[in-house]
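We read letters as residues; the fold follows as tokens. A sample entry reads:
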Amino acid sequence: MANNEESRGLKSVLLDWFANRRKSGSIIQERQEREIADGLWHKCPECSVLTYTKDLRANQMVCVECGHHNRVDSDERIRQLTDPNTWKPMDEHLRPSDPLQFRDRKPYIDRLREMHEKVGLMEAVQTGLAQINGFPFALGVMDFRFIGASMGSVVGEKLTRLIEEATQRRYPVVIICTSGGARMQEGMLSLMQMAKISAALQNHREAKLLYIPVLTNPTTGGVTASFAMLGDIILAEPKATIGFAGRRVIEQTLREKLPDDFQTAEDVLKHGFVDEILPRTQLKQTLTQLIALHQPPALTTTHNLVMWETRHLSSTIVES
């Protein structure tokens, strides 16, 4: 009888201990999640290392432990690539309409309104003129926060106007690409943007001017099938997803299991669709060098070349 009571008492103690441990564990986890959510720390989705957000931003949102490239918005991209106080946005007033009166789970016009309130942008791309280490250039930056940076009619119009302005000024063009593809809510009007942007790029090329697309994670669909792959030099960020159709669609069509690295930047580079994979921390320096080497004679000045060489050499000395 005593043994049964002792065993029941021991069982009760053990159950209480496990319950308290589970409760304290949930409290600790909740506290950790709350601290991370405050924005002071960032947990890397690849290696789970906690990094002080200020240090992560100083490293251009690249994990210092594993090199994982976190997604950044268009405002941050512009700050990373352009010289201070040189950014001059173009066509900020353009905003999409709803010509098809499309509706899925909600009306398309309501979705656009929600995106504008949430992101603060009229569309999924920002375009403008700026300088990069003293060299003028035209820059387009797609923003995945706005309906997956899908390519609608306004995205196509803004990029086309940017390229045409760059051709007229004889500026090189750089487009930071990220997209889920064409915007289904605009149907054929979205697909027409592929041809429109490509035609503008052809005129830019015939003027013997430079165009560099930078493929970031992810770059898929109609963007990949058009201006993302029409560059004179095509750059990509490490481990970025680059492709046309989705992995699941391809596997169901072929009825085959695809390799784990399929549609990664490294796989695309191996098959010759990308010229170089660059860490984000080296992008501005590399773009400056490429633009300097391809400047038209009218824009190539001794002052600009000397200024860039001085900066390049000084940064090399510091790194070494």
